[in-house]
TrEMBL record:
Transmembrane segments: none annotated. GO terms for molecular function: RNA binding; rRNA (adenine-N6,N6-)-dimethyltransferase activity. Residues 34-205 form the Ribosomal RNA adenine methylase transferase N-terminal domain. This is Unannotated protein.
Length: 280
């Protein structure tokens, strides 16, 4: 089956009087090989219900529906949301597609349970959207997100690297993430002025309950808000004072002279547990 090409995408955009909005990150994939590569990397199967965020004109949507059992597309642009079903029907008349015209961050539940997440995410919402769906949709077992290269590097970063920070640690609460490829600027219309990469994630068992997650995430925020400071200073506001921070770090068996970038998720969880125990 032929996927959407550059000419058809431009025709649909002209029909809708659509001028891609930079504010919405509207850079549409016009290369079928790239779409099929993403589907392959996401390891979509015939039993999967895919949730796609930001389907746009539908290039990747059709490639996903070639393989998946069904797909729910979340699209914030009303014109694109309204057009997508007919575009898909032209290529795959019997596909199971649901389109929801909503801001992706406003959605906390679906009638069906998605198993795979695939998204082409703009820079300004990429990390919040990924964390939101990992948190609120535990049925999502894996997926691939296409994001700006710098964001991808942060999501997949390991401790003691320049890129390691809040996105790296928080995402690892729910999943293991790794870089799985780069995407050429030339496969987009319009051509963006940034490079993109693909990040694959696989859900894992979370390391604790919601109370621990909240405390751990607060510690992560504190540690990286002033990442050049030692932990006993960086966590002073979170703990109440530098002395209390040092006491909590001691209880967690963490060197208070370290910086946040040296700590793993397990270390931050130990800090969160020590804080919860201290507060009774």
């Amino acid at each position: 089956m032929t996927l959407l090409g550059a000419a058809e995408i431009r025709e649909i955009a002209a029909e809708l009087d659509l001028h891609p909005a930079k504010s919405l990150g509207q850079n549409f994939v016009i290369d079928g090989n790239t779409c099929r590569k993403i589907v392959r990397l996401a390891e979509v199967t015939a039993s999967d219900h895919v949730i796609e965020i930001g389907p746009g004109i539908g290039s990747l949507t059709i490639a996903l529906l070639e393989v998946a059992q069904s797909l729910t597309a979340i699209e914030i642009d009303q014109r694109l949301a309204a057009k997508l079903p007919s575009t898909v029907a032209t290529h795959l008349p019997d596909s199971k597609l649901e389109v929801i015209n909503r801001d992706a961050l406003s959605l906390n539940a679906l009638d069906s349970l998605p198993t795979v997440l695939v998204a082409n995410l703009p820079y300004n919402i990429s990390v919040p959207v990924l964390l939101h769906y990992l948190e609120h949709f535990p049925s999502i077992k894996s997926g691939v997100v296409m994001v700006q290269a710098e964001v991808a590097d942060r999501l997949a970063a390991l401790p003691n690297t320049r890129e390691y920070g809040i996105p790296s640690v928080k995402a690892s609460w729910w999943a293991e993430l790794k870089l799985v490829g780069s995407v050429s600027r030339s496969v987009f219309w319009p051509v963006p002025n940034v490079d993109s990469k693909l990040v694959r994630f696989v859900r894992r068992e979370v390391p604790g309950d919601e109370a621990l997650r909240i405390e751990t995430f607060a510690a992560i925020d504190g540690a990286f808000a002033q990442r050049r400071k030692m932990l006993r200073s960086a966590l002073s506001n979170w703990a109440g004072s530098s002395a209390e921070a040092a006491e909590i770090l001691s209880d967690a068996a963490i060197d208070p002279t370290l910086r946040g970038e040296a700590l793993t998720l397990r270390d931050f969880c130990a800090i969160g547990k020590a804080k919860l125990a201290k507060n009774g």
